[in-house]
Amino acid sequence: MTRVLRYAAASVAIACIVLALKLGAWWLTGSVALLADALESVVNVAAAGAALLAVRYAALPPDANHPYGHAKAEYFSAVLEGALIVLAAIAILHEAWGAFQAPRAPEQAVAGLLVSAVATAINAGWAWLLFREGRRARSPALLADARHLLADVVTSAGVLIGVGAVAATGLLWLDPLLAALTALNILWSGSKLMRESVGGLMDEAVEPGLLARIRGAVSTSAEGAIEAHDLRTRHAGRLTFIEFHLVVPGQMTVDQAHAICDRIEAALKAEIEGATITIHVEPEGKAKHHGVLVL
């Protein structure tokens, strides 16, 4: 089992634990804001399960039907998570509207808040670990899970403060107001997550910083060539696909041109984990005098 798969499996277990704690906090208090927080954790459980399945599928090697591998499966998990967040937000808004019409004071507020605080602390620690592992492994599924958990932590912290304020002041309308604000917050995070995941499915180019690193690696490792042009890039989960045309002197032998390509590929793979490179060699008459000039 890979590290990414282990983290994805652990996320399911932790999401279930946090959900149980948050449901317990709502059961103790009857607070609609804490119910909203628990409903978001229901999404966490479903999303963690989807991420686990996506990571397992993405880890499959290339086959005849998927010669480029299965890494994009993780983007589908992230899109699904975003959709689940939107559904949770709608459910929370429905509960908040009902509570606005018939507000009630929270019961056993101190006990409920303590239970919710423990759940929030667990989520915060796990979100930090998922961010670290997701960035290291370049896993869209783990990063999506981490971003959702971080949004959940921020939301939960606000709910804890608000429910405490309701118990201290007796202002019952604060409870449904906090639930509605929770819904709007997770709705924003869900829409952002879906936009980023759709970008991956649409083969967006790599970010400018990474593109500069690619151009630098090609420029400094292609000694003997003239230029590289028509550089194209895209992400597919943890993989980065790079392709370009490499212009070499017309009299250069195939062996010499191949040696340059091997050197460029080695430099790119050393610079970028998961790089998959395609190089089309052309004679100097095809030079466009733009793109990446060889140093």
TrEMBL record:
Membrane as UniProt keyword: yes
InterPro entries: Cation_efflux, Cation_efflux_CTD, Cation_efflux_CTD_sf, Cation_efflux_TM, Cation_efflux_TMD_sf, CDF_Transporter
Residue ranges annotated for the Cation efflux protein cytoplasmic domain, each copy included: 212-284
GO molecular function, one term: zinc efflux antiporter activity
Membrane topology: Multi-pass membrane protein
Domain Cation efflux protein transmembrane: 10-202
Top-rank taxon: Bacteria
Listed transmembrane segments: 7-28, 34-55, 75-97, 109-129, 149-171
Location in the cell: Cell membrane
UniProt-listed GO biological process terms: intracellular zinc ion homeostasis
Recorded family membership: Belongs to the cation diffusion facilitator (CDF) transporter (TC 2.A.4) family.
Official protein name in the record: Protein p34
Species, as recorded: Roseicella aerolata
Lineage of the species this protein comes from: Bacteria, Pseudomonadati, Pseudomonadota, Alphaproteobacteria, Acetobacterales
